[in-house]
Amino acid sequence: MLADKTAAPAQVVANARANLRWAFILVTSLFFMWGLSYGLLDVLNKHFQETLHVTKAQSGLLQAAYFGAYFLVALPAGYFMDKRGYKAGILVGLCLYAVGALLFVPAASANSFALFLLALFVIACGLGCLETAANPYATVLGDAKGAERRLNLSQSFNGLGQFIGPMIGGTLFFSATQSAGGGDQNMVKMTYVAIAVLVLGIALLFSRTRLPDIREDEPLPHGVVAQGLWQHAHFVGGVVTQFFYVAAQVGVGAFFINYATEHWDDVSNQSASYLLSIAMICFMIGRFFSTWLMGRVKPATLLACYSLINILLCGVVMMSIDGVSVVALIAVFFFMSIMFPTIFALGVKNMGKHTKRASSFMIMAIVGGAIMPYFMGAIADHYSTAISYVLPLLCFIVVLFYGIHQRRH
């Protein structure tokens, strides 16, 4: 009987750990799905320039619609999840993702840039819900000391999705563009229908799974004083820094294909898409490697070092050295890899009951990605694509200062 009494608590602990592990796996799958969506976005940017004959500045409206939706949906998503819980928010996000993907069918049939913008806006509304839920969820599914590493691990699979996206887009979209007839948008339509089916399958899996609650009302760590949301300097700095970082990341990717075709002889749009996939491999490897490295180097220190390296690399990109500058641009992706999850985790750490609202504002900061491509496109149209990379360089300077500040505190 004594053995039974001691075995039961052990079994409860084992079940709880297994439940946390399964929840972490499911949530990590969401990171892959929005990485896939984002990976396709940069290919669509160049594809629509070719098939719909829009300018670089106009093609930047794709990112404006996509990341503008994050800004609009983040706070409502946070309030909704306060009332209904994170599982409900995830399910709503997945359903919006699927609806937006299916809207590519009428958009492709009409060959309408405006309808494509609407479809991407709806997709991004869904992704905004998912990111508002999944990012803080990943940080609390375990020991608080490992929050940055845990979020970076989940975000590594986001990098996997961003690698696969350009491979799919480059293979299917540009091969259709080169073929005769009116099938330019047919492969785009088929791709997004397949994504809608996959997303609905994931939604079904989530609906049948019991997810543990996030414990945001637990006591704060020893020595941490409870404050109002905007009294936390690390949070306010995190929101500002996230705005500039996402602006840099989106801008770097949005005109990668343009830059590669302009600064590497005989590189076609399709080949440049494959180079973008190589850049995304670097992004993914950077996240896995840096997650390991964070066990030995403080996250804030790593953030400061990586941002300094990217400032130098952007300088090389602006120098327009054929081949060399393209390699430098690919390297930028490796050193961007940890920035979003690290800034996010540092910004919402020790926020207690404010975690949901803090997460909402961190996701709202993604609107930086909506603004940057238009201005980079305008600079590229009037001067050159290489000169437009001065804007990401300036953004990485902001990230550098935040990393240094957090390292000191």
If you had to describe this structure to a student in words, what would you say it looks like?
The structure is a single chain. Helices cover about 80% and strands about 0% of the residues. The chain has about 400 residues and is mostly helical. Helix 7 (about 145-180) runs antiparallel to helix 14 (about 340-350).
Structural topology:
Layout lengths: L1 H50 L4 H4 L1 H24 L1 H17 L1 H7 L2 H28 L6 H32 L7 H22 L25 H22 L1 H8 L5 H25 L5 H20 L5 H13 L2 H10 L6 H10 L3 H15 L2 H4 L1 H19 L1
Helix pairs in contact: 1-6, 1-7, 3-4, 3-6, 3-15, 3-16, 4-6, 4-8, 5-6, 5-8, 6-7, 6-15, 7-8, 7-11, 7-14, 9-14, 9-15, 9-16, 9-18, 10-11, 11-13, 12-13, 12-14, 12-18
Write a concise synopsis of the structure shown.
With 409 residues, this protein is mostly helical. The protein is built from 18 helices and no strands.
Largest sheet: none
What's the mean pLDDT score?
A: 84
* Helix/strand order: HHHHHHHHHHHHHHHHHH
The separation of the N and C termini measures 52 Å
Please tell me how large the radius of gyration is.
21 Å
DSSP summary: helix tally? 18
Report the sheet-strand fraction: under 5%
* Quaternary structure: single chain
What structural category characterises the helix and strand content? mainly alpha
Helix content: over 70%
Q: Low-confidence stretches at least 5 residues in length (pLDDT < 50)? A: none
Q: Please tally the β strands and state the result.
A: 0
Q: What spatial form do the alpha-carbon principal axes imply? A: globular
